[in-house]
Please model this.
Amino acid sequence: MPKTLKLNKGAEQCLLELLRFLLESGKVKGVFTLSKVGESGGVAYSLITDPAALEAALPLFPLMPVDAAKMLSRLTLVEPAAEPIAAVVRPCELRALTELIKRSQGSLDNLLLISSTCGGVYPLETGVNGNIAEKLPGYWESVKKGEIAADIRPACAACEHFVPYNADITLALIGNKDVDKQCLIQLNTEKAEQFADGLTGELSQVEAKSEIIDSLKAKRQARKQELLGEFGVEDFDVQKVFEKCIVCRNCNKVCPVCYCKVCFFDSGGDEHDQRYYETEMERKGYAPVLPAPTFYQLVRLFHVSMSCIGCGLCGDVCPVNIPLWAVALKTGGAVQNAFDYLPGRDLDEGLPVTTFKPEEFAATVD
Amino acid sequence: MAPDDKGALFPAEGGVRERVIAFLQKAISQGCFDAVLIPAKAPGTDSFGYSLIGDEQLLKNAYPLPPVMPVQGAKAMSSLTRTGNGKKKIAALIRPCEARAAIELAKLGQVDLDNIFLITIDCPGALPLAEWAKDAKKAEDAFAEILKEGPNESLRPICQICDKFSTTGAEDLHIGVQGKEAKGILLIPNSPKGEAILECLGLAAGEDISGWRERVDKLTGARLEKKKQAQQELEAKSKGLDKLLDTFSQCINCHNCMRVCPICYCQQCFFESDNMQFSFADYLKRAEVAGGLRLPPDTLLFHIGRMLHMSLSCVSCGACEDACPTAIPVAQVFSLVGNRNQETFDYVPGRSRDEPPPLRVYQEDEFEEVEQSHAAVPAKQEAHNA
Model:
């Protein structure tokens, strides 16, 4: 059982105290966390180096403006972090980061990864409209009870992996009935113990409420089935699901695991010359002129399904509301099951396409 | 504009859509052109996409004025014609703002208009993409109402202040549907190619179109008023660095505005290039200067950079705003800045095919007063320091 520190503070204050301690003691040079921006209630990730700037930090604010994994990859892609950084990220973002590291898109060196059991986030739209503040009391009630908070993104309501896999430090939020006055900081690794050394708090033997975690997992699994049915991806008629797609490719742009520097669809690889369209038209009477939604979406699924961690950002940014998170969950789930692979579970678990054996899938080959 | 302000009446019945389709069918059957690039609805779906249609019967699926603008028509024209090599005579029927963008792209070498009959149509505007995405049928009904009764406030904000909804002055043929011409649609030729279409149809440009033009001018005037007021309000809200930062504070740097913009055609955007990839040490240094660094960084720099690159050619089509996931009034801001820049150079994007983009014909002696006002700054500072 990991060492657990108990602080008599609400979760957000407690996390801020931990971050302030790390920064002020010089144990880390910077803190990566969500922070308030502007006056309209928006949040964005920030790399904070001045403890005074932590005033604006909102590490547990239930909104995901961008995927943290993308930002941490960006910070460490050219070279690993030369100084220690504490990063507060959601479990799905941590899983995405693990997948990116497997694909050499960054480095974990000098990163202290802090996560929490996650109650989910609200749709980007709710954040933009400034409507999250009024929902917060209800949100934290649901977290305490281990229920699915009302109005969170369907991708979150359907997420079973809300307990972080590779965090150095985990804040136990789900099922903590005193989440507003007492917090539990689990130190999962030796690294975490070293960093937390000197933080005032009592060592606790309080066990995380595993029965509440299990029951929330069951609720979310049930919700997932409901939602997949409701959004019509169970039978997965690709023409129908992607009908309204305008091929803006914003789903690819915000996706943490769509990391290619030059996407095939930006390479000119899918372009045709005018003669091609004219020949198609002669054959069928008409020829759709680019873009081709189904082709794009299927190629994207083909590329990202194995590593899709279901963060839901694709659906959040779609200008025509295609339930892309559901499509990703359905196809990602099927592909990952076939290979008995769970993206982001373990850094040492090789990507199936890189560990392929000739004798695998003999039935498919035949 | 036709010199004698004349057009031809193409006799047809039904709504605007049916009349325009009848014209296109006739033109194809007479061999005036071989095919039409036009938005069409795939049977059994709610979605509109650009198609090259050569079959008269299939033209029944065409929507010359779809309720939304899912893809900017100039982008479709670029896909079709950029590589050249076409053998067919193609008519492209697109909205005026799409045609203006296509003309800009032709100047930038991204569209080839040589084999194209560029046809525009009086545009009632478009509905926000998000409304259509929520309920396509409802949006279609709302748009049918607009086609019948005229523009209303359910249109996209940028369309509500559009003063260039009719002839661009540089298309080959314009279709006038303003008002309720009982007997057909007006075909107004603007070039020898446009005149050739009329001739091919056996029509003479003998119809007096002053009634149509009066209605267009009247709405243009009303729109200009409304635009002036809207732009003043927007300026009060977004002028100056602090207000601009706040206007774009929710930007997630997804670059979707850039990706759907017809004018932003670079294959590799500067802001997605290695120029924007820094080392950890650089990010940390920047964070230390201010106490913290927002990630992704440089969100406002991206918008200002984009403005600098495309605002002279911005046609205020609104595609950027439709595509923004955080509801930033990006089209309204870009249109405001674009209009100011264009006025400075006395340039209207898409007004003429021969008018070169201002940056291409820059004169050394231009804007001396701007240079001088900037040169004066260090002098003032010196005085202050002394």
